[in-house]
Each structure stands twice: as structure tokens, then as C-alpha cells.
Amino acid sequence: MKNGAGFKELYEKAKAAGMAAGEAAKPAMMVVRGEDILINGEPISPGKVWYEPEGACGFAWVKVRPGNSSFAKWLKAEGIVRGKAYSGGVDIWIGEFNQSMARKAACAGAMARVLSEAGIKAYADSRMD
Q: Is the pTM of this model over 0.85?
């Protein structure tokens, strides 16, 4: 892709693939037991159990490198990314899927695959909250 031709369509294709992957993801339910949460060495609620069906909370993003590539510049101009990322390049932040790290990571992975197949250097990354 030269001079930004087709970037909008490519981004929309990647975003659609990401959304479909996030929706299709099957997060493992997170179970938290009150005796496992300690304050000053004492459990906060012995015998109590909380369930989070969407799994662990976290974040995900798609790293695009280099940050001065035509695609990265287009992402900045469109307001999709903000400036340079901490570790270089630019990050497309995944804001959908509430706090579900599994769904966000699936979305980022699918987006990165679509972008990579089009010749964009893109990588998915995530971290637990």
C-alpha cells in the first residue's frame, strides 16, 4: 500500500476481524475465594466466593512498527492512536469487551493477523490488570 491508499479499508477489515474474534472468545471463568485475599495476613471473607464469567481483567493492544511508517502516520491522523508508544511504534488500544482480557487479547490477535497479512508490521500484546 502506497501513500495511505486503502488504509481505511484495511483498518476496518482488521477491526471487524478483531470484533468477531473477541465475541467468539470463550474466557475461562475466574473464581476468587475470600480466604485467598489477605489483608494484614487475615482473609477478608472466609467462605465467600466471587465468580467473574468474563475471566481475568486486563488490557490488550496492537503494536504497529515503525511509528513513522505510512500506516502509523495514518492511524495518528485519524485519531486512532495517540503519539508514540512507550516501547516504540504506536499502539491501537482495544477498548471494547469491558475488562475481559481474554476477549481483548483475541481481538488484538485477529487485528494483528489481518494487518500482518497486508504487510504491516503489527503485533498483539496484552497484560493482566
A: yes
